[in-house]
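Contributing new records

If you add data, match the layout below exactly. Sequence lines come first and carry their own label; structure lines follow with theirs. Keep one chain per record. Anything else will be rejected by the validation script.
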Amino acid sequence: MDVKDTTRILGEVSIFESLTDKELAEIASRSQFMTFKKDDVIIFESEEGNSLYVILEGMVKISRTNEDYKEVILAILGERDFFGEMSVLDGALRSADAIALSKVQLLKIDGKVFLEFLEKHPKLAISLLRELVSRLRKTDHQIKSISLADAVGKVASTIIRLANDVGRQKRDRVEIDNFASQQEIANYAATSRETISRVLSMFEREGLIEREVNKIIIVNFEDFKKRFGE
């Protein structure tokens, strides 16, 4: 991917929308293009971090391992999302792993370059703050759904989050690709794989979803959200 294509994609990332093409091209030219295969670890929890990553293509899961050595998925990120900003901002160690869910192409932006642009462009800093607040609200909602909802509600809420974050909408239908393994959905919903299997089968019998290999299709997304209170 050349600087021109990277510049175009950077301009579609929420925090960089206020920058000019010239400024975006400067960031692209001072950054590193990287490619990862499915299941590659991009960053490790507790390692030193001095770079911000922008996803140009593919999907990345942000996860941690709890005291029982079980994976807990915190977020699923797709194209035009970014991660790694926390360590760049506070200088602390990475707070989670970032793992490729598919083939992933990234732009690795050096922390010093990013901080330099933050200082020069207040609108960039404001956009970053808005994105961080949005993520905090999503996390609050996720904690609420996990702690208060029953099994069906947890699974429905997780499917809706995936649809919003990485789904592809075709009219009323939303397709969720590459993230349809029951174990990964269970790790995201903080429940068991058996519960996921049971609830997804129920949704399928009721005509709410369809399933293909590595894909979940929500038949009518708006109706699904209304039914489960989202």
